[in-house]
Amino acid sequence: MYAFRQKALPILERAFDENHDEPIHCAKLVLEGIKKQTGIGDDLLENLSFIFDGGIGLQGGACGALAGAIMGINLVMGMSVRDMKYSEILKAFAVGHKNLLSDTPVAEPESFSVGKEIVSNFKNQAGTLECQTITGKKFSNWSDFQGFISGSDKCAGFIELAKNQAATAIQNYLSVRK
What we know:
- This protein is mainly alpha-helical.
- The longest helix has 25 residues, at 153-177.
- It contains 8 helices and no strands.
- The protein is globular, with a radius of gyration of 17 Å.
- It has one domain.
- The two termini are 17 Å apart.
């Protein structure tokens, strides 16, 4: 339903401005980009997203840019279980898990099916979901991460990819909901 264009990652002259005053946080850049493109955002989530740097706390796990994309779509498509009846929660989880396991999602887009597509496309582009494999590096500390990411065209490309996938999914979802 939300077929993202298969294209090569953008070739950037420089990954990030060398004179950046602010630290670079993968998930935060994705969330800020989503907000800029769609108007959908959450300042607190952006500020807390630094935890995804270097693959979740510098451990080399899930890519922070991908985590930012998934968090971004959940701002619009995610469930607020505090505001739902128990039966609604069960139904939403059942539909979502069916969509995770199925090749053909139900007609109405929801966070599980859209997230699955974003993750799948990201993995096709990156070859993996793990920061350590994408970067070829295990970061020893936060300064090591900052030194690497500030010059990484590859990471800048994946940040752009994640931001664009999530923003497109959000825009498509909102246009269907009108």
